[in-house]
Design a protein that fits this description.
By secondary structure, the protein is of the alpha+beta class. It has a single domain, classed as Lipoprotein localisation LolA/LolB/LppX (outer membrane lipoprotein receptor (LolB), chain A), CATH 2.50.20. 23% of the residues lie in helices and 39% in strands. It contains 6 helices and 11 strands. A hairpin with a 2-residue loop joins strand 5 and strand 6. The chain is globular and about 50 Å long.
């Protein structure tokens, strides 16, 4: 009887292990995931897109705006708008093409759930010591290989998070809507300070947090944008 019970127990454990492996197939390694994400953006030399931006910041009134964003590799960005517009540049100009060149992987791939969907989670460490970001949590949709969200934690527990809803543009998945939430802390340089960009030189009491929603439409890819379009931005960065 004991022998029969032992056999049944071994069979039960073996079947359980097989079922567990079937429900959780082997995860791709982090390098493979990053390559698949980079592939979404491979071949995009430049693009033009219309942005509708609404910003909700504590103690600061920011009117909604509609702007045209021009992007050219590797990191040239230009904005054009009729009238006055505040643009959170760090929150709209995503570039996932050279992730492996810019980041190291802190540890292996993890599975997480975002809005009821299974996601791959990677923790990335910037290779450039001068960057304001110390670590980035990247969530990737395993079906589309598109980034679905980013989380950038700071040392004091505050987080800048970006939720990304993607749309299919040709054979690529590119942002359709990005919702960014952020917080700031005195002396904290680990969080990208979006407030400095939407309200430079403001004299109000410092805000403690806020959000921005950016909607992307009318993508035009590889139209051959001239470097002259970005001349003013390049000169300002060189000052």
């Amino acid at each position: 009887m004991r022998t029969l019970f032992g056999v049944i127990l071994v069979l039960f454990v073996s079947i359980s292990q097989v079922m567990a492996q079937a429900s959780h197939p082997a995860l791709p390694d982090a390098e493979t995931i990053l390559r698949n994400v980079e592939h979404q953006y491979a071949g995009i030399n430049d693009y033009t897109v219309t942005l509708e931006i609404s910003v909700n910041v504590e103690r600061l009134k920011v009117p909604p705006s509609k702007v045209t964003m021009y992007f050219k590799q590797p990191d040239k960005v230009h904005f054009s708008a009729q009238g006055f517009a505040m643009v959170p540049k760090q929150a709209v100009a995503f570039n996932f093409e050279r992730l492996q060149e810019r980041y190291d992987i802190e540890k292996g791939v993890e599975i997480d759930t975002v809005n009821g969907r299974t996601e791959y989670r990677l923790i990335l460490l910037p290779k450039n010591d001068k960057t304001k970001l110390r670590r980035v949590q990247l969530y990737v949709d395993p079906e589309r290989w598109a980034p679905d969200s980013l989380r950038i934690p700071s040392l004091d527990g505050r987080v800048m998070a970006a939720g990304i809803r993607n749309q299919q543009v040709g054979d690529r998945w590119l942002p359709a809507e990005v919702t960014v939430t952020f917080g700031t802390a005195s002396g904290d340089s680990s969080v990208v300070n979006v407030l400095e960009e939407v309200a430079p030189g403001r004299r109000q009491p410092p805000a403690r947090g806020g959000s921005a929603t950016i909607r992307y439409s009318d993508y035009r890819i590889n139209t051959g944008l001239s470097d002259d379009l970005f001349k003013n931005e390049t000169e300002q960065q060189g000052r």
